[in-house]
Specification:
Low-confidence stretches of chain A: 28-49
Radius of gyration of chain A: 19 Å
Helix content of chain A: 40-55%
Number of helices of chain A: 3
Distance between the termini of chain B: 72 Å
Order of helices and strands of chain B: HHHHHHHHHHHHHH
Shape of chain B: elongated
Shape of chain A: globular
Number of domains of chain B: 3
Radius of gyration of chain B: 32 Å
Strand order of the largest sheet of chain A: 1-3-2
Order of helices and strands of chain A: HHEHEE
Largest sheet of chain A: 3 strands, mixed
Largest sheet of chain B: none
Structural class of chain B: mainly alpha
Distance between the termini of chain A: 64 Å
Strand content of chain B: under 5%
Structural class of chain A: mainly alpha
Oligomer: heterodimer
Mean pLDDT of chain A: 77
Number of strands of chain A: 3
Number of strands of chain B: 0
Strand content of chain A: under 5%
């Protein structure tokens, strides 16, 4: 029986997508709003703040970052990034706060700046833990 | 046997009572105020606030209530709780005795400044300088107001405050420094700036060049290498008719290309902000006022 080329990759690809979605969605499901009252008095939706993620692109982006943080980053040892927040945390926050389009640009810019020459002389504040402070809020185009 | 625990408890209670009798302290308003002041001296600001509040509750008719309220504001300010200090000073300024009006206004304005509520800070400083021009804090208020205006980007307002200072307080020890600072305002107006648009366009044409223009030379080199490698990868893929590889490399490289444009504009903005802050520091040092 003839098989379509590439079909054997379909199930692993689908599984990976599901994993990404679950990775991204897990923090929302496990957020502490669920534990703030007895079950009978608890609302079925978060009261405020974190809402369920509905944008597929954003979900895929933050899911990928979560996947990286959980499974890939620890392989080379933790706390390797010289910036605070780390590049992955920066990307996660940027995408969550400013959407996938701007968030990806900000993350790419951060990855470019996270080079071997970075140092306090480049205008970053050196934190007591030896890292350079570079928050998402300091990289917005607004004045 | 049944009464033994009761007896034990009673003896402990009586012993405690006797001990308390021997150490009795009469809590007067002076004692309470001393406790609060000692916490302030030890820089235990939050405990000091509690003790001053206790003073207000225990001795509401005391003539030192205004002092305690002022110290609450000072404790909050020293403890860097600027929202609370601004509220405390504002309340005392409105409903307290006249003698605390100027000091409260000054510290209220300083609290707004710390909170980056620049409009409120300017208004309060200027109001103080206008209503109490002979007070010793009025020159400081004018100098501070000029700096706040400068932080807002209101150069004309800053110049007006400095001019008022020069006209009003010719015998003030800081007079010559204010004059010098005023002359530096002209430089502040014409500080060199990097154009965000130009940086973006440069990076769009040659990746990394916008960073170099904005003073981030090393980031520019990195951006050039990353984008160069991505472009080479895409070109090689196309050349070898391997479009899948080209697509993947382009998918990875494109965010870096657009990120390089975004980053260049951002770097230009950061350069402008740093230049402005550097010049502001220069003016602050010239003014030499301790806020």
């Amino acid at each position: 029986m003839a098989t379509v080329p590439g079909m054997r990759f379909l199930w692993p690809a689908l599984l990976s997508c599901c994993l990404l979605v679950m990775e991204a969605a897990f923090p929302v499901f496990a957020s502490d709003w669920m534990m703030k009252a007895p079950a009978s008095k608890r609302s079925s939706q978060p009261v405020s703040g974190e809402q369920f993620e509905t944008s597929c692109v954003r979900l895929a982006c933050v899911g990928s970052i979560r996947l990286y943080q959980k499974w890939i980053s620890p392989i080379g040892g933790s706390n390797r990034c010289g910036f605070s927040p780390s590049c992955s945390a920066f990307g996660y926050q940027a995408i969550q706060e400013h959407g996938p389009a701007v968030g990806i640009l900000m993350t790419a810019d951060r990855l470019t700046r996270c080079n071997i020459w970075k140092g306090p002389e480049s205008g970053y504040t050196l934190l007591p833990n030896g890292r350079l402070y570079d928050p998402v809020s300091g990289n917005l185009l607004e004045d | 046997m049944t009464f033994f625990p009761l007896f034990l408890l009673l003896s402990i209670f009586l012993r405690g009572a006797c001990f308390a009798e021997g150490q009795a302290i009469l809590l007067t308003d002076e004692v309470q105020l001393k406790i609060a002041d000692s916490f302030m001296e030890e820089k235990e600001y939050y405990r000091a606030v509690t003790e001053y509040k206790k003073y207000l509750i225990l001795f509401p008719a005391s003539d030192k209530c205004a002092y305690a309220r002022f110290r609450i504001g000072t404790a909050y300010y020293s403890g860097e709780e600027y929202e609370s200090s601004a509220k405390a000073f504002a309340l005392l300024r409105q409903s307290g005795p006249e003698e605390y009006g100027v000091k409260c206004g000054y510290f209220e304005a300083l609290s707004y400044w710390k909170l980056k509520k620049l409009n409120e800070a300017t208004l309060t400083f200027r109001e103080l300088a206008a209503t109490h021009p002979q007070s010793e804090l009025a020159p400081n208020a004018l100098a501070a107001s000029s700096l706040v205006a400068l932080e807002k980007g209101d150069i004309a307002g800053s110049r007006a405050d400095m001019t008022l200072f020069i006209e009003r307080y010719p015998l003030h020890p800081g007079w010559s420094r204010i004059r010098e600072a005023r002359s530096m305002l002209w430089e502040h107006e014409s500080l060199p700036r990097k154009s965000r648009v130009l940086a973006s366009v440069m990076s769009a044409i040659l990746p990394g060049s916008g960073y170099v223009y904005a003073g981030s030379f090393k980031d520019g080199i990195t951006a050039f290498i990353i984008n160069g490698l991505a472009a080479a990868g895409v070109a090689t893929g196309v050349h070898q008719e391997n479009l899948a590889v080209s697509g993947i490399v382009a998918g990875v490289g494109l965010p870096f290309y657009f990120g390089n444009i975004y980053g260049s504009a951002n770097a230009a903005g950061k350069w402008n902000a740093a230049a402005k802050e550097k010049h502001l520091d220069k003016i602050r040092n010239t003014l030499g006022f301790d806020f």
